[in-house]
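Please decode residue identities from the backbone states below.
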């Protein structure tokens, strides 16, 4: 019932606004289609803002805490308790991580099309929680695990088969399904709490993206230190149990905020309108585009508002026609001129707004592609750099050793200080020069991050050469502190790129596709991880020339491998990627409908949304 009520309010929403009788005093809320829990239009003073978003931040910190603790120690659990071989275990883990991020697309799609972010998070949060509980039950009960083997002789150890393996994979993929669908909605739902047409709130929006990253870093840090310690000292059953508890706390956080949220109503399938544009353009490919764009369907300003299914039932959200990708415009050419009563099917005739939305989608793809190499480097820091750390002197003091897996927490320690500093000092400082609300535009932010990544790999390469030379020539094991620079530089560039990318995608003027776009940014992770495995095997194939000589990464012994050369290769790759990014971001910025352009025409757009053609997300 509730769902129906929400959908109904959405379709007749602009009627509500105009009949309020207050003559639209809230100009900036005129295009605000969000509703509260019961489906009534949300009230700017009661709903939304940082207060509402902070509940979502709580879920974010706890959820990442739960999943990071599982992800980081999964490989030891699979090997020691499930008795899989090393290669098999590593594949189980990478497939699991990859699946989480690919499933983010499903979560974004469901939320924008049918459920809305709040319900998606609630439903899949419980799915994830049940996965954690099942994992810890299995880790606790000996009946559900393969028999322990005291002697370390491999033949006697049976790997998990049949029912036991089934339970394990069901539990694991419940966690993956839950986490994947929750992830994009946390960021999007938090950002939905800010009305972008209101200049005060859109300033807060970029602070929110930084805060979200801060919450994420806190969760990761606690997972990589406290929870990993718990898992190693009191067994995996307690470890998974703690993850389940963290997830439960996160869900409590989310539910506590229900009265304060602004919810964006779902708008029916988001993929249909996109498909319609391509079908119509292909169907009419032989037509000739009229020289005057006003002749295209849905572009006449005085014409009746053609109701485009799904994307915008608000007359406000019209996008102006642009010159790029002209072939898609053919989908807007009207064929039947004489008889106005017969309407062409939506699969044959699209509106200009619909076509422009597809153009925006196509033009953000190159920006997304440039971050894949960035995430490949992230994958190296989680695998090879941990091995590097294992072959170094891990003593902090005489008695206290750092577990190499906790090395990954170095970037997060830095970020916990860097993010608040960035938001409180750098942003206002940069704002004076650029006049941009986020200090620097999301595109500049991504670029800066990509630029720094190269140095992270250069530092890693130099460090690895030093470590290897010392180990081979003077049999000297250098301290683990030498490994910090690569993590440090990467931590800073991740803060710039990851947050910049999410902010960039969220602020695209695609109405009702926010959660889905956020999910696309997560996909970049899984592509990065897959590319990483591909690179490692490729490099091995190419560099192992003769049968006697193994590849750069062929050996399990780092002193025989040439990891430093692999790092140099990544540094070069990363630099080429940065140059490539410069090209695409310039190409994107000179797009006439792009948001940067409006920014340059002065700030008055921020105060008077009625001046711009596109309603909701017009302010970059």
């Amino acid at each position: 019932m509730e769902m129906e009520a929400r959908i109904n309010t959405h379709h007749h929403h602009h009627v509500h606004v105009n009949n309020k009788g207050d003559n639209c005093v809230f100009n900036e809320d005129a295009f605000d289609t969000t509703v509260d829990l019961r489906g009534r239009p949300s009230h700017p003073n009661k709903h939304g803002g940082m207060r509402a978003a902070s509940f979502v931040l709580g879920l974010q910190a706890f959820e990442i805490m739960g999943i990071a603790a599982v992800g980081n120690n999964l490989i030891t659990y699979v090997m020691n308790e499930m008795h899989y071989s090393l290669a098999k275990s590593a594949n189980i883990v990478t497939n699991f991580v990859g699946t989480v991020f690919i499933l983010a697309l499903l979560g974004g799609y469901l939320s924008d099309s049918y459920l809305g972010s709040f319900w998606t998070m609630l439903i899949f949060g419980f799915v994830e929680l049940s996965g954690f509980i099942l994992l810890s039950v299995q880790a606790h009960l000996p009946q559900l695990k393969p028999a322990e083997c005291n002697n370390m002789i491999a033949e006697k150890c049976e790997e998990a088969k049949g029912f036991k393996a089934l339970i394990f994979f069901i539990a694991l993929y419940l966690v993956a399904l839950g986490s994947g669908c929750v992830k994009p909605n946390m960021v999007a739902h938090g950002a939905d709490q800010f009305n972008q047409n209101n200049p005060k709130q859109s300033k807060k929006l970029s602070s929110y993206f930084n805060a979200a990253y801060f919450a994420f870093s806190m969760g990761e840090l606690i997972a990589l230190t406290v929870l990993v310690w718990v898992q190693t000292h009191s067994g995996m059953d307690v470890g998974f149990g703690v993850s389940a508890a963290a997830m439960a706390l996160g869900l409590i956080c989310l539910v506590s905020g229900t009265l304060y949220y602004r919810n964006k109503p779902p708008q029916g399938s988001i993929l249909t309108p996109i498909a319609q544009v391509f079908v119509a353009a292909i169907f009419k490919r032989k037509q000739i585009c009229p020289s005057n764009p006003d002749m295209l369907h849905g572009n006449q300003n005085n014409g009746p508002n053609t109701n485009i299914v799904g994307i915008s039932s608000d007359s406000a959200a019209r996008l102006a026609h642009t010159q790029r990708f002209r072939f898609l415009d053919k989908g807007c050419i009207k064929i039947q001129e004489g008889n106005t009563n017969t309407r062409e099917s939506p699969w044959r005739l699209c509106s200009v707004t619909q076509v422009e939305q597809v153009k925006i989608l196509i033009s953000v793809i190159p920006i997304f592609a440039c971050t894949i190499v960035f995430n490949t480097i992230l994958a190296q820091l989680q695998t090879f750099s941990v091995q590097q750390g294992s072959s170094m002197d891990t003593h902090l003091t005489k008695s206290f050793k750092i577990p190499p897996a906790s090395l990954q927490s170095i970037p997060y320690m830095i970020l916990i200080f860097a993010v608040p500093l960035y938001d409180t000092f750098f942003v206002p400082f940069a704002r004076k020069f650029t006049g941009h609300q986020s200090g620097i535009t999301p595109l500049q932010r991504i670029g800066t991050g990509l630029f720094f990544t190269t140095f992270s790999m250069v530092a890693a390469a130099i460090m690895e050469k030093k470590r290897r030379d010392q180990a081979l020539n003077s049999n000297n094991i250098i301290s683990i502190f030498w490994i910090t620079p690569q993590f440090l530089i990467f931590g800073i560039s991740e803060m710039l790129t990851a947050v910049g990318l999410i902010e960039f995608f969220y602020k695209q003027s695609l109405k009702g596709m926010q959660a889905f776009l956020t999910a696309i940014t997560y996909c970049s992770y899984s592509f990065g991880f897959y590319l990483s495995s591909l690179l490692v095997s490729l490099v091995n194939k190419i560099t192992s020339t003769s049968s006697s000589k193994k590849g750069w990464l062929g050996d399990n012994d780092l002193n025989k491998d040439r990891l430093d050369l692999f790092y140099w290769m990544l540094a070069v790759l990363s630099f080429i990627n940065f140059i490539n990014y410069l090209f695409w971001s310039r190409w994107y910025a000179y797009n006439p409908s792009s948001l940067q352009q409006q920014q340059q025409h002065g700030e008055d757009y921020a105060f008077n949304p009625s001046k711009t053609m596109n309603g909701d997300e017009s302010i970059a």
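Observation: Residues 199-256 form the longest helix (58 residues).
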